[in-house]
Amino acid sequence: MRLRSSDAARIAEILGAFSGPKAWYDLSDAASLRKDSVGNAPVGAVGDSIGMVLDKAYGLVRGPNVWAAPSLGSSWIDNGDGTYTKPAGPNDNMTVPGVLTIGRTYEVVYTIDSQSGPVSIRPLVGVSSVAPIAGKVGINRFIMTASGDTTAYINSGVSSGGTVRDISFREIPGNHATQSSPGSCPIWQGKYGAFDGIDDSWTTSSIDFSSTDKVTVVAGVRKASDANPAIVCEFGPTIATSNGAFYLSAPNGGDATFGFAAKGTALSALTAAAAAPFTAVLSGLYDIGGASVIGRLNGAATSSGATLGSGNFGAYPLNIGRRNNSSLPLSGSLFGMIVIGRLLEVAELAVFERYMARQAGVSP
User: What per-residue confidence (pLDDT) applies to 1?
Assistant: First the structure.
């Protein structure tokens, strides 16, 4: 256990020192998991749906509170004691304009002392990003990505009203993965997320890898079946039509393999043989300029020297468990995944793989 903790700390150190694109999804860490895609309900028990996986690569450190001196709209009242009240009536917003950045993720926390009406008090993070469920009396917590504009809102709908206090909007940096459809959420099993092989997956907002032609991805995965090709992760909608993309697959083509592939302007792919059911640490080291794809299955390497064409990786969502959140569903389990926009050094890769092997239970 000490080794595992030390490896986790070293991974956090490596990721923290790297200023380029990165992501770390840890399915054993309940504190980084939420039941729904807006982070309203924490995962706490085996069998819970996982609608959001927070990215640990940035330390899950919250930024400063950007909610201050709100404009009160037409009906909100500043009570002078840190609370704000809206009488029941027309839809109205409290707003703090210009404090959000479109595409970034914010944790919104506020306390409702009382409320009434059919649409109760809820946050908006940019006018196009609305909490799909309203708040409740007591402390409320939502995790939302800003879209539409840069304004922070607290909204109370038609014929609704109430009193609210202790409002905060704090950025959570990272490339968080979500699934907005409840029926397509993987299921938490304490140390991993279980994927049903039908429609379970997560996806991120666009991650910009366009500054680099090198990527390393390390994942702990168990494939339950070799019947159909399945995506562990794919950067981009589909590698066949997307330059600057990469993937891991399990299996690769409806056969007893795992797959590794990357593409600049030309696709290079390889496989490693292992029949399902099989638990593995998969590492893909992709270098467009170096014309190299290296795939590692539980530490054993297979490499390809075929050209990947030219250019850098792109700016796409990272899809986890399905291609483009819609096809080639994974049947099995994901223990964790780390992606970094450079090639790991030999000693660093050993730390990442050892840690992931212990997460997946494939090493002592």
Answer: 35
